């Protein structure tokens, strides 16, 4: 499947009353060693490192993009922004948990800046599609960023506004990316086979592509 750049979707978020009940405790465990970087998926990490959560469609390709960046210390695939606790992949795929497929990115800001991470985010998926990313349709594929500090929030909003002008000037619709504090959500790790999936399955499904539209430098 190929990504259809700057399309739209008619999916809708589940009503909380109709959400699946989820699970009181996690019903699976994961291996805590990153299959590519050799680092921990759960931490702790050295002082001065930061973490951000990004959702840009299928988390397999998104995670691969970020673990390749210098300065990224760890990545993982998970579920964020939903209602049902401790969801499974099968439950998320029903659309009745409210989660989006997200990745956690732990990084050293002295090596790779938050701006650089956001530049990769905006330029490598379609942030205008709502509850869809290319041929992948549903709320689990929505574009979203969950920040962990005020500096990240400021940069997210500034880069969104700058990129919004770029796409508007090209005649594309408005950005639909959800922006929210990570502190108001619980990040649930996805099942072990999803972690670093495209390292384990090199010929696996990839839906991400550079859109050809560049985020301008901030002034």
Explain how this protein is built.
This protein has 219 residues and is α+β, with helices and mostly antiparallel strands. It has one domain (26-200): Peptide Methionine Sulfoxide Reductase, Chain A. It contains 5 helices and 8 strands. Strand 6, helix 4 and strand 7 (178-181) form a beta-alpha-beta unit. Helix 3 (114-123) runs parallel beside helix 4. Mean pLDDT is 94; it is low at 1-10.
| H/E topology pattern | EHEHEHEEEHEEH
Gyration radius over CA: 16 Å
What's the number of structural domains?
1
Q: Tally the helices: what do you get? A: 5
Task: From the structure above, extract its key features.
219 residues; alpha+beta; Peptide Methionine Sulfoxide Reductase, Chain A; 22% helix
Which SSEs are present, and which pair or pack?
Blueprint: E1 50-56, H1 59-67, E2 72-80, H2 89-93, E3 100-107, H3 114-123, E4 132-133, E5 136-137, E6 143-147, H4 150-169, E7 178-181, E8 188-189, H5 197-200
Parallel strand pairs: 6-7
Antiparallel strand pairs: 1-3, 1-6, 2-3, 2-8, 4-5
